[in-house]
Structures are given as C-alpha cells and as structure tokens.
Automatic annotation (TrEMBL):
Keywords: Amino-acid biosynthesis, Asparagine biosynthesis, ATP-binding, Cytoplasm, Ligase, Nucleotide-binding
Protein name: Aspartate--ammonia ligase
Pfam family of the protein (one): AsnA
EC code(s) of this entry: 6.3.1.1
Species of origin: Bombilactobacillus folatiphilus
Nucleus recorded as keyword: no
Amino acid sequence: MSLIIPKDYDPKLSIRETQNAIRYIRETFQTEFGKAMHLERLSAPMFVQPQTGLNDNLNGVEQPVSFTMQALDDDEQPLEIVHSLAKWKRSALKRYGFGLHEGLYTNMNAIRKDEAVDNLHSIYVDQWDWEAVIDRSERTLTTLKQTVQRIFKVIKHLEDEVWYRYPEAVYHLPEEIHFITTQELLDRYPDLTPRERENVICQELGAVFLMQIGGELSNGEKHDGRAPDYDDWQLNGDILFWYEPLQCALEVSSMGIRVDEKSLQSQLEMSGATKRLQYPYHQAILYNELPLTIGGGIGQSRICMLLLGKAHVGEVQASVWPQAMVEQCQTAGIQLL
C-alpha cells in the first residue's frame, strides 16, 4: 500500500458539499465535452463475452472479473466485466451507422481487481469513454494534437465554472498544454524512471500530453505498457497535470488514434499476441470492416479530484480500501466516501 498524506490537509468542502460538487462537475463536463467534440451519448455494456475480443486487455496481465449467466449455454460462458470500452466503441460506431467526423461518448464503469490502490488508483474505474470516425488522411500527429487541445480547452472552461460555484475549493490549472514524446523525455532525463520523468516534466511545464506510449524506447524498455490492439503506439498519449497537493503527475486521460490493419498486425507481432487475430474484432480491422477512429477515456473521478484539489480518489468515488488506509486517511482529515 502506497499512500501520500499532504501536510496540514484541508478538504475545503464537507462530504455533502463534495457530493454536490461531484454531481455538478460530472453533469457539466459531459454536456460541454459532447458539444465541443460533436459526440452523441450512448449506453454501453458493463460486461462482454471474451470470445468477441472486445474487452480491453490493458497490459496483458490483469485478470478481468468474470461470472456465469444462467441463461447462456456452456460455450457462451463466461462473461467478463469490462476493463474499458476501447474496442467496443469502434464496433458501435459501425453498428449504429456513424459517419465521418461523427462520434459517441458514454459513461464507462469497470472493475480492475488487480489495481494497486493508492491516492490515485482504485479497483473501481469510472470514465467518459469516447470515439469518433476520422478519414485515413487524418491519422496524423496534427489530428492528435488538435484533439488534445480541444479536450484541454473543455477542462479549462470547466475550471472556471467550478471556481464560480466553489471558489474556496477549486484547484487552478495551467493555461496551456505542452507536447513531448516518451523518447524525447527519456533523452532529456536518461537516469530517471518513467514515473520520475513524468513528475519532473509535469512540474516544469504544468500540463503535458505525453505521446507515443507502448513501444520500445532506445534503452530497450517501454515507458509504459499499452494494449497492442486499440491505440496506434505512434499516435497516442496521456494527458498529465502537475498536481501540487500530492507533488506528482496526475493522468486524467489516455487517448489516441486507433490501429489500422498495418499497425494492428505489427503491434501484435511485437507483443507476441498474434493469436488475437482470430477474434471477430481483430478480423474486422484487418479487412477494413470497421471505421478508422480516434478515441480515449477521461477519468470522471480524476477530473473531480483535480478540480477540487482532493488528496485521495476515494474522496470523489465510493470504493473499497484496505482498513489501514482508511484509518490513515481518517486521521489526516481525508474524507473517504
């Protein structure tokens, strides 16, 4: 268990005030985000059948929560709680007839039972998952950066609205976001670990979009693991903020331009995961039966935590924590829901 206790922590808002602020942030963000990105809100599954290949495999080692359903035959079992909707969204865009530059967003709720819980991580994941159709000519860094700028603008505008309602509680964000690749970051700080590099660059610049995550760097290591079958590792990244209350980088979004047939094949080969090519989802990409897309996830609890200056994600979501962590938080005035 890793827990950071800020010195003289003041949550600013009571639990009931915090709950009201959470509701306001969630409702306001999704409305403004949908308008700014031209996205329609859809319902989404909480569980899928593994044989479809639709579940997010994350780093390939996390085990999904699974269960059986009485009405299904044995060969249709089990069902898996989603890790994310990264793959489902792309299939949904085709199934529901979305055209070029149209897209969707949805509330995604997941369980990641293998997550190491701390101030920023919970086994319960809640995020806005989104996906939009793009043209093949738009599979570029320019498209990626322009999309990041639009998302950053929505977050900044929400900061102003939260400040108007809760001026004593809002955490102020930097005025702009900077772009850097994982290789550039390694070249800049070769003696630091990936997490240390993220902390240093975010403290220096305030807000960073860290690009090209998943592939091997010049030192023979990966900056971070990333599933090989949804993001194109050359066209993806994370939105990170320097978070003063915890003195660390805070990731609020992972996103990217999705794999086409070439990058899918290449990344599966590099990952030793070519057996996934048998799944319907992967076959559909290989034979250009799914639209080319850009998409990602934006953490709902992370956005609430960031804007309200909270010290623990458990202050903005209800989950389960080790008793020792609960007691430490209570002593420090960190109000877990």
